[in-house]
UniProtKB/TrEMBL annotation, chain A:
Protein name: Calcium load-activated calcium channel
Protein species of origin: Thalictrum thalictroides (Rue-anemone)
Primary role: Calcium-selective channel required to prevent calcium stores from overfilling.
Chief location category: endoplasmic reticulum
Gene Ontology MF annotations: calcium channel activity
Keyword Isomerase belongs to the record: no
Compartments, as annotated in UniProt: Endoplasmic reticulum membrane
TrEMBL record, chain B:
High-level lineage: Eukaryota, Viridiplantae, Streptophyta, Embryophyta, Tracheophyta
Region (Disordered): 1-24
Major localisation: endoplasmic reticulum
Protein name (record): Rab5-interacting family protein
Compositionally biased tracts (Low complexity): 1-20
Organism annotation: Thalictrum thalictroides (Rue-anemone)
Subcellular location(s) per record: Endoplasmic reticulum membrane
Amino acid sequence: MEFSLSSFKYSDSLIVVLISICTAFLCEGISWILIYRTSSYKSLRSSIDKASKKLETMKTVVETTTKKTKTKKKIDRVESSLKESTRDLSLSKFKSGAVVAVVLFIVFGLLNSLFEGKSVAKLPFSPAALVQKMSHRGIPGDDVTDCSMAFLYFLCSISIRTNLQKFLGFSPPRGTANAGLFPMPDPKTN
Amino acid sequence: MKSVKSNQKQKQQQNNDDVSPFNFSKLLDPEASWDKDQLGDVLHWIRQSVGLICGLLWGSIPLVGAVWIVVFLALSSAIVYGYYAIVLKVDEEDFGGHGALLQEGLFASLTLFLLAWILVYSLAHF
């Protein structure tokens, strides 16, 4: 019994995923060469981690101690030092961020030229109107469950790159502003 | 200078001793002490695993309709909550509250779930 990718109607989705995986590894590789292996990044990262932990401890202490004014002043000093380190970390990632942005732009352009106007997958739900702008982008017809390359690539980018960064230990420290309900893959390496 | 450095090392050692290094036996041990980063990472990977499994399952059956996204969010949140509150019995106040713990890896797991669901549905049923 012969098996081939062409027997799947939506085999293009696998090509999009594969290219996304390769792009994720490439971007992280570029980021590692330009940022993560440098001593300045390592020391900044370490100081942010230490400052965050120190801040948490001090905030706990200020609730229990009577010397609140002194401790609060110390907290302010640590917080401003943390903000400075976070800003320096962001700046240090700027150069690599530009290179990665160019790579992503080229990859997106390539995928667009390959799959423009084609439905690469079928959505098992009808997306909201706002989501349809991306999920039905460039696809003829009114069937909103036809999925464009852009939406699938978006899902691949977020899920694969976030988890790859996490797995490799490259995700931003929790003490920085990049945490929250919708943490994206590190924007300076996007 | 040397005595200052050795004092700093001792303090660091004491801090490190308060939280045990990660090993898999900690995952089911309610007596284990957790670092915020360690617990956050574990909850992140639990969310991703639930997202992947649900996506593969929802796509295979298949389950169709946006309501299943809500079901997934509720289910994965319940699992994460059950894990840290009932299995590990951690005090959420020490880790930034329920919000901070429940949002660990939430968006990434949602996109991973959607990706798995869409792929399996598209490839297996058309």
